[in-house]
Structures are given as structure tokens and as C-alpha cells.
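Limitations

Structures in this collection are predictions, not experimental determinations, and the ligand pose is part of the prediction. Treat each record accordingly. The example that follows, with D-gluconic acid as the small molecule, is included so readers can see exactly what is and is not provided: the inputs are given verbatim, and the output is the predicted complex.
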Amino acid sequence: MCSDIIFAMIQFPKNFLWGAATSAYQVEGNNFNSDWWPWEKAIGKQPSGDACRHYNLYPQDFDLAQSLNHNAHRLSIEWARIEPREGEFLQTEIQHYIDVILALRARGIEPMVTLHHFTNPIWFSQSGAWENKRSVERFFRYCDVVTKALAPYVHYWITINEPSIYASHSYIFGAWPPQIKSYWKTKAVYDHMTWAHIQVYHRMHQIYQEMKLSKPAISIAQHLQAVVPCTDSLRNRWAVKLRKKWFHFGILDTIARHKALDFIGVNYYSRQMVDLTGWGPGNFVHEVCQNNHTPCRKNSLGWDIYPQGLYLVLKDLQKYNVPIFITENGICTLEDNERWEFIKEHLKSIHKAISEGVDVQGYLYWSLLDNFEWAEGFVPRFGLIAMNYDTQERTVRESARKYAVVCKTGILQ
Ligand code: GCO
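Predicted complex:
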């Protein structure tokens, strides 16, 4: 059995942030200046098309979030809308995102804004994307423009979402654009993203200072899995150690060393079972055991549901001594009661970490709405709110109503 955690009193700290997360490309629709747009069509996957038409329907979606007692919401800005051609910044699009953020604030919902969530402008991709070392200054310039415009309205920022997932899916597994398989390129991409975060972080703080605004809180959203060895063999122990170093702590250590980490954004979904069958680099970097040694429930994409792993991850992060926000945690399923179970069990795991001194300050469920799940298209259903993509009709799920009680009271019954 995967879930075996039992607790008595489940009360979360005062001022805890409660809400959900989305990303622009996955919900807005019609992001035709982004690199995923031509790629979806080229590979013949389900295209993102109108998605949830959130670009226009955001007031209605935020009304729903408000009615569900959310006091925080994570969203992202689509770089390709702001800068569709290199160096050309569109004031109308910047204003759009100001309006979006003000719409949240008007509903008493604290925004957390992500500047890069997997997609790039087409021009940026055509000039080598993150492989090119000029990516750092290009991203810096975009962030500079956006921060100057949005600083008065935003406190919490994520510069880059899941650098390790972007780098590995695009450059190790070749599953996402530009579909390359090269360890060297992966390393270059990862290094450029790390360096970009550090530079942008310091520039953003400087902008807030120049504008005489109180200090913002800036981080990355880090994808973290519970890395669990199937046996205690030397090979497995090494693999766990190396993977945690490469994919979990490496980037956090570097940005903490450069004093560019105000909090940690944790995206947690699942565990990874480690049972290596060889000593090759591929075994160490990404071999995942398929033998189901300790079976547990799975989501509709086949990912193990492993709530106690979130506790383990949080304990591992305690050493950084900064606040932690769960910036994503969610389940895709067609059985909504599984969603509520999932949320409940993960909240228990978070509470256990809090009761042991881990400074978790918020929980943002992935996702507010069913949405475009990248290469998987619209099939996986992660939303608190169900989408009918034919009619664009939204339906609040029962799990969302149960979660709303926790959002309101800070108590998990
Ligand atoms: C990610 C992304 C989201 C996904 C979510 C479910 O973290 O991978 O931030 O865009 O949709 O994680 O897979």
C-alpha cells in the first residue's frame, strides 16, 4: 500500500496560501507565436487550438476560483505574446496581463506569476532556444520589461518552471521540441536556465528597489519526485544520490549560493523507482524500474500516487532554510473521488512536514481547469473544474467543493 499516513489534528498555519495553478499555453488558447504551436501540427498530436479560451474567459474562471475560496493563484505569462518578434514588445499584451493580475487582486486572490513555462517565442527557438548562450540575455531583456510593468501588482514570482523537465524532455528524451537527444546540449540548456534565473532574480530585486516597492519573493518551480530505490544495492544507492544531485539539488544549490532563492516552488506528482540493470550513463541518468515492486494506485497517465513522497521531498528541502510553496500537485483522473483522496493525502503529508518544522506557506493544486497537457493533448483531466471543450462550458467538480472547505477554514477534516 502506498498511503499509510495517519494523523489526528490537521490545522494549517494562518495566512497559508490556498489555490490552484495554470500555465498560459495550457489554458489561454491560440498562442500561435509560441514554438509549441507549429510543433504540435508538425508531429500530428492533438493541437492546443482554443484550449480553455482563458485568454478571454479569465474573469469567469477567477469568479469560480473566488467562489471556491482560493486566496492565491499561479499563472504564467506567454513570452511570445509580449515579444512576438525579437525586441518588439507589445504594450497591449503587457496591459492584458496587468488586467489579468488586477482581476485576481479584485477578487482577493494573490497572484504568483511565472515568466517561463516550457514554451518559447518562435524567433527564440529558431535562434537556438536555450542551447544558445545568448538565451540568457534574451530572457533577461523580456523579464526586465515585464517586471517594470507588473512590479506594482505582483509579490510572488517564478522565473522558470521546471528547468530539469524542460531540459530532459526536450534534450534527453527528445519528446518535446526541439526533440534532440544529447547530454551535452541538456547540460548547456540547464546551465543557461540556471544562469538566466540568477541574473533575472537580481535584476528584478533591483527594479523593485528603484521603484521603491517592498521586496518581492522570487524562485523557480522545481519538479521533485520521491526517488525510491527498489533494493539497497550499491548501484541503486549511487543512482539515487546522483539523480538527487543532478535533478533536485544541483540547481537549488547553485542559485542559493548566488543568493537568488527567496523561497522554493515545489511541483510534486509522483515517485520514481530506481533499480538499475547496468552501469551505463543512461542507466544512471534515467532508467526507471518497470517491475512494480511495491504496487500502488496510479493516475490516468500511469504515474504512481505516492503522497508520503511529498513529505520526504519537503524534509530534504529543509536545509535551504527558506519558505516553501507547493506550486503544483495534482492528479489526472476520470474518477473525481480519487482527486479528493489525492488532495487530502498530500495535504496530510505537507502537514506532517510542517509539524516537524518545515516552513511550507502555501498549496496550489494543479490545475484550476482541465487543460492542454502538452504531448498528451486534452485527454488527461487534472482540473478542479471540468472542461467541455466543445462548448467551453465549465463545471465545478465535487473535489473542488471539498477542497474549498479547506481553503476557507485551513482545517482538513
Ligand atoms: C509540469 C507543468 C504542467 C503540467 C503538470 C501535469 O509541471 O509539468 O508545470 O504544465 O501540466 O505538471 O503534468
